Amino acid sequence: MKILFPLLAIIGGIAVAIQGQINGGLGKKVGVFEASFVSFAIGTLALLFAVLFFGKGNLLVLSTVPKWQLFGGLLGVIYLTISIFVIPKIGVAPTFVSIIAGQIIMGAIIDHFGLFGGVRSPIDIQKIGAIMLLFISLYLFNRQ
Fold first, then answer.
1. Residue 66 in 3-state DSSP?
2. Do 23 and 37 touch, CB atoms closer than 8 A?
3. Predicted pLDDT of residue 6
4. Is the Cβ–Cβ distance between 35 and 92 less than 8 Å?
5. What does the alpha-carbon distance between residue 32 and residue 80 come to, in Å, rounded to a whole number?
6. Cα separations (Å) of 3 from 7, 8, 10, 121?
7. I need a surface site. Which of 118, 127, 129, 144 has the fewest CB within 10 A?
8. With contact defined as beta carbons under 8 Å apart, do 110 and 143 qualify?
9. Cα–Cα distance between 99 and 53 in angstroms, integer?
10. Are the C-beta atoms of residues 21 and 93 closer than 8 Å to each other?
């Protein structure tokens, strides 16, 4: 059962890579912001149905959550719009190596300081080594 969550994360990564290529192509035809809008609109409709038929949470408590927790959607817009802009220029793999590098570096910082209510996990020499390897990977993927 312990393998289930990493496998689900891999499936999520596969979906994001496919989404990136699809949205990059859409962006070349309709425009970067327009493609981002279409992607979020369709995603919002899908989530509306998921909430209606499968949701078990309580949207009525939204007024009680810290306001900074509502900015996730804005960060999603930034991420999606940048990927739509960048993928047609450098390709899916180099874009996602760059995105993953950013995610891991920021994730390590968030974990190190326990930001946003997260669990503290200090950066150690092993994590620094992994980040250095990320930079090597980033260089190799983006070298022309």
1. coil
2. no
3. 87
4. no
5. 9
6. 6, 9, 11, 22
7. 144
8. no
9. 33
10. no
Amino acid letter, 116: F
Which residue type is seen at 128? I
Closest CA to 79 of 102, 50, 45: 102
| 88 touches 81 (CB < 8 A) | no
Contact residues for 51 (Cβ-Cβ < 8 A; gap 6+):
57, 59
Cα angle 65, 71, 75 (rounded to 5 degrees) comes to 150
- What pLDDT is recorded for position 141? 82
- Write down the pTM of the prediction: 0.82
Side chain identity at residue 80, one-letter code = L
Q: Cα-flanking dihedrals φ and ψ of residue 2, to 5°?
A: -65, -25
* Structural contact between residues 107 and 137, judged by C-beta atoms closer than 8 angstroms: no
What are 68's two structure tokens? Answer: 């900074």
Looking up tokens 């990320």, which residue turns up? 134
